[in-house]
TrEMBL record:
One of its GO terms (biological process) is methylation. It comes from Franconibacter pulveris. S-adenosyl-L-methionine binds at P224, G300, G301, D302, I305, T330, A331, M382, G411. Signal peptide: none annotated. This is Siroheme synthase. The lineage of its organism: Bacteria, Pseudomonadati, Pseudomonadota, Gammaproteobacteria, Enterobacterales. Keywords: Cobalamin biosynthesis, Lyase, Methyltransferase, Multifunctional enzyme, NAD, Oxidoreductase, Phosphoprotein, Porphyrin biosynthesis, S-adenosyl-L-methionine, Transferase. Residues 215-471 are annotated as: Uroporphyrinogen-III C-methyltransferase.
Length: 471
């Protein structure tokens, strides 16, 4: 280890920065955030620094460097384009046992600036010892994505409870278990949701009954398939899960992001068969939460768009189990975007309608007259098995038989396929498409050849349309 990681308290301490350009400005921004008294030596100041000097936020100490300027400062930074001057600053600082950093010159550094993830008072620093700063930055970006923005406030709230916890729980092990449960459980979720009062009440209740267990259910939309479309909040929640109940539509790439030691249970449903009945899934969610576990219910797309998420949370509400929802990218927006088919366009469609082809037998029939209107886009979920009926009814109720259609199979995934044709060919197109598939009906499909960007489409030659150019 070439550098010992340290966190320096710079508040109200003098720091000398030699240089007044853009590079110096970046370092000074960090120093002022830490509360340092910044003294600048430079012939001229970058406009950003000039504004700070005018506002008395920094002290434009001198225009020329003098070694005596080092006598009363805590640490030193040289950020000029003059290598001789930088060497003079380094040598003089070393002679006075001052920590010094010459920017972008690692051999002339007795301390270095790490890449920082700032969730004050929680701060994470990553360094490669000056060998690979770009790698350190990339690692910082990955860590940044995993750490919720509310962590700083959560740490402050936890700090305000430390003395109470010590008075109530007298052993280190008991306190450690308490905080592990708090940071993985309901307290953390309530803080993330911005409900600080409820989070404080949860800490008080847990402290009063340290052996009590209170879990929760978190409904998470996993998106249409591409793991890159999972939301940042969804990723963070999945890393906290004790148990995950997931659907068949959740891709392997998304499942790979689940916390490694979480229990995983597939409760998915496929067309024509049910792995687990819905009421059984509801009860499992409730039972796990009552055991004090953080239960993530992971659903393809968005849980509130044809995902039965509302039904599951109604059951949780009736059972008195707390819950929250993390929305996801629904298939209609994700799959069409990856296929280069905008759902709306000023020249083709002024509205988009989301419809499910799978509904309860006792449900009211579709308003086919409304769905058959022109200049709107229909995005039909779970509609491949009823594609013939959909085509027939739309044509009967006034939609042109030559209306462009697309069947997007396994949208956003590596094996995505897009079959295009006309409304009268919808059934035959749907029969070719591997599941899951989304039906898209409307003039916007004509834009697919122009806007397809994700991969080459897979048009069926026998279904070439007079409207859609598939050449």
């Amino acid at each position: 280890m070439d550098y010992l990681p340290l966190f320096a308290a710079l508040k109200n301490r003098p720091v000398l920065v030699v240089g007044g350009g853009e590079v110096a400005a970046r370092k000074i921004a960090l120093l002022t955030r830490a509360g340092a008294q910044v003294r600048v030596v430079a012939r001229a100041l970058h406009p950003e620094l000039a504004a700070l000097a005018e506002a008395k936020a920094i002290d434009w100490f001198a225009q020329a460097f003098d070694e005596a300027q080092l006598d009363t400062v805590f640490l030193v930074i040289a950020a000029t384009n003059d290598s001789e001057l930088n060497r003079r600053v380094f040598d003089a600082a070393n002679a006075r046992q001052r920590l010094v950093n010459v920017v972008d010159d690692q051999p002339l550094c007795s301390f270095i600036f790490p890449s920082i993830v700032d969730r004050s008072p929680l701060v994470v620093a990553i360094s490669s010892g000056g060998n690979a700063p770009v790698l350190a930055r990339l690692l910082r970006e990955k860590i940044e994505a995993l750490l919720p923005a509310n962590l700083g406030r959560m740490a402050e709230v936890a700090g305000s409870w430390r003395e109470k916890i010590k008075a109530r729980l007298t052993t280190t092990d008991a306190r450690r278990r308490f905080w592990e449960r708090a940071f993985r459980g309901r307290f953390a979720s309530q803080m993330a949701a911005g409900n600080e009062q409820a989070a404080q009440e949860t800490l008080a209740q847990t402290l009063a009954e340290p052996e009590s267990e209170q879990g929760e259910i978190i409904l998470v939309g996993a998106g249409p398939g591409d793991a890159g479309l999972l939301t940042l909040r969804g990723l963070q929640v999945m890393q906290q899960a004790d148990v995950v109940l997931y659907d068949h539509l959740v891709s392997d790439g998304v499942l790979d992001l689940v916390r490694r030691d979480a229990e995983r249970i597939c409760v998915g449903k496929r067309a024509g068969s049910h792995a687990v009945a819905q009421h059984e899934t509801n009860q499992m969610l409730i039972d796990f939460a009552r055991e004090g576990k953080t239960v993530v219910r992971l659903k393809g797309g968005d849980p509130f768009i044809f995902g039965r998420g509302g039904e599951e949370l109604q059951a949780a509400k009736a059972a008195g189990v707390p819950f929250q929802v993390v929305p996801g990218v629904t298939a209609a927006s994700g799959a069409t975007a990856y296929a280069g088919i905008p759902l709306t366009h000023r020249d083709y469609a002024q509205s988009a309608v989301f419809v499910t082809g799978h509904y309860k037998p006792d449900s009211a029939p579709f308003d086919w007259t409304l769905l058959a209107k022109s200049r709107q886009t229909l995005a039909i979920y779970m509609g491949t098995m009823k594609a013939a009926e959909i085509s027939e009814q739309l044509i009967q109720h006034g939609r042109d038989a030559d209306t462009p259609v697309a069947v997007i199979s396994r949208g956003t995934r590596e094996d995505q396929q897009v079959f295009t044709g006309t409304l009268q060919q919808l059934d035959a197109l749907a029969k070719q498409a591997p599941m899951p598939a989304l039906l898209v009906i409307g003039e916007v499909v004509t834009l697919h050849p122009q806007l397809a960007w994700y991969q080459q489409s897979n048009p069926a030659e026998e279904f070439r349309s007079s409207v859609v150019n598939l050449a």
